[in-house]
Write a structure and sequence with these properties.
The complex is a heterodimer of chains A (124) and B (358). Chain A is of the alpha+beta class. Chain A contains four helices and nine strands, in the order βββαβββββααβα. Chain B has two domains: 275 residues, Gyrase A, domain 2; 80 residues, Elongation Factor Tu (Ef-tu), domain 3, CATH 2.40.30. Chain B is built from eight helices and 19 strands. Classes of the chains: A alpha+beta (124), B alpha+beta (358). The interface between A and B is medium-sized, with 14 and 19 residues.
């Protein structure tokens, strides 16, 4: 699992260049109760660090950026009915979309767990 | 600035936020859970960022009546009156609660963001009145205990509180010092507010949390305070009312007593009332998924007709709700479009408060 500075996680599923993206547990705690998720459209091509989804909490709206470039192949439709899955299980059941990577080397630019924990620790 | 309860909020793990210069708790746990706790049981709020201003003197009553859209003259002793203060041009200075001890002794609770402006307003307008004005900003702390179990919690310390009528208050002693207990609030779920000196506020907070535990009391932050008031359709200064929105355009229009001989801003409000330029505020429930936020544009049949003044999610309805300020006449059940980012979302005009029954 790799992490972005904007608090997304990405998990590569297999060697076919497919990866799952969500927001980190730190992000869901900062956002508070998620009440609505605007999911990306399946089939859409997206650039790294561009807005892919929107999370609406009781406090505010927050953009979710795609950590990598690629094509959206699947979205977590359960979030439409149960946006709170992100609060309950941000890094597992609360995944947001699956993406087919165009350039796997983009993963190297992201943080590993140790590096990500370092940037969130001084904020909490 | 910090309230006397700042250390308590940190110890409870609150997420702190700057609110008009005050470091306040936004939430301790989940805003939705805190909201629902107030609706079903009871919550305790630190609202020490609000300001108390004393207005005493022979002309205190006529002075406050002159400033207020609502009627102050002749109200019962120990009653509390919600009112708007209008500018001469018809905008809103603030919305406040005026507490009458007797004809010569009043105090006013004003919004945190408007403390100094309101104090200045009182001083500026008082020239031809014999009144003495003094703020209690440095000394006071304020608590709110809100929810259906609020009486049970309060009577563990103040048994006399249960006799208090709606929108009334009483002076009491706590630890040999004067405090004020009032049956007022900003949640729609009933309850009390307490005005006391900082040290007593900390002791009261601790005691009420402890005594309230069997009744399910939870500390509640500004996040749920906002969703609770929005669900009830109550105005928040800077949103539903401000210096560019007139009282008679707002959800607080009911405060205006047109048959009062005079009050500051009355002529401007009357002119607006007769004109075709008067806007109206309404409740709206989103029919499409999404959450409307303040400043979102509102359309009807493709024509821009207004803006969202407040928007959030209602935990009671499990729907997105908003208050909209519209330049065109609409009726309940009319459909409008609210632009959320690039998307048009359908919404229905509804009667306030949003929950028809709590």
């Amino acid at each position: 699992m790799k992490y972005s500075e904007s608090h997304e996680w990405i998990r590569t599923e297999d060697r076919t260049g497919l990866a799952t993206v969500g927001v980190t547990d730190y992000a869901q705690r900062e956002l508070g109760d998620i009440v609505y998720v605007e999911l990306p459209i399946v089939g859409k091509a997206i650039q790294a660090n561009k807005e892919a989804a929107v999370l609406e909490s009781t406090k505010a709206a927050a953009d979710v950026y795609s950590p990598v470039s690629g094509t959206i192949v699947e979205v977590n439709t359960r979030l439409s009915e149960s946006p709170e899955l992100i609060n309950n299980s941000a890094e597992n059941e609360g995944w947001i979309f699956k993406i087919k990577l165009t350039d796997a080397s983009e993963l190297d630019k992201l943080m590993d767990n140790t590096a990500y924990n370092r940037i969130t620790k001084h904020k909490t | 600035m910090k309230t006397p309860l700042y250390d308590r909020h940190l110890a409870l793990g609150a997420k702190m936020v700057d609110f008009c210069g005050w470091e306040m708790p936004l939430h301790y746990q989940s805003i939705v859970q805190e909201h629902l706790a107030v609706r079903s049981h009871v919550g305790i709020f630190d609202v020490s960022h609000m300001g108390r201003i004393l207005v005493h003197g022979p002309d205190a009553e006529s002075f406050l009546d002159y400033l207020s859209t609502n009627l102050i003259t002749g109200k019962k002793d120990y009653s509390a009156i919600y009112t708007v203060w209008s500018t001469p041009e018809g905008g809103c200075v603030d919305d406040v609660i005026i507490y009458k001890q007797d004809k010569y002794h009043f105090f006013v609770i004003v919004n945190a963001c408007n403390r100094h402006k309101d104090l200045q307003h009182l001083q500026d307008e008082s020239e031809s009145f014999d009144v003495y004005i003094e703020d209690r900003f440095a000394e006071d702390g304020i608590l709110a205990i809100q929810g259906p179990e609020a009486d049970n919690v309060i009577k563990t310390i103040f048994p006399a509180a249960c006799d208090l009528e709606q929108m009334h208050f009483m002076p009491l002693k706590y630890d040999q010092e004067d405090i004020i207990l009032s049956r007022t609030g900003y949640t729609g779920s009933g309850g009390f507010e307490i005005y006391a000196q900082g040290r007593n506020i900390v002791n009261l907070w601790d005691s009420l949390l402890k005594n309230g535990a069997p009744f399910g009391i939870v500390p509640v932050g500004l996040g749920a305070r906002d969703t609770l008031r929005l669900e009830m359709g109550y105005a928040l200064y800077g949103h539903e009312i401000n210096d560019k929105i007139a009282a008679n355009e707002s959800v607080a229009s009911w405060t205006i007593k047109w048959d009062k001989p005079n009050f500051l801003g009355k002529a401007a409000l009357e002119t607006l009332e007769r004109s075709n330029n008067k806007r109206h505020e309404h409740g709206a429930i989103l029919l499409d998924p999404g959450v409307a936020r303040s400043e979102c544009l509102v359309f009807k049949n493709g024509k821009e007709i207004g803006i969202v003044t407040s928007g959030s999610y209602s935990p009671i309805l499990n729907k997105s709700i908003a208050i909209v300020l519209l330049s065109e006449t609409v009726k309940n059940d009319d459909i409008i479009d609210i632009q959320i980012r690039q998307k048009m979302c359908k919404a229905k005009i509804v009667k306030l408060p949003f929950p028809r029954k709590l």
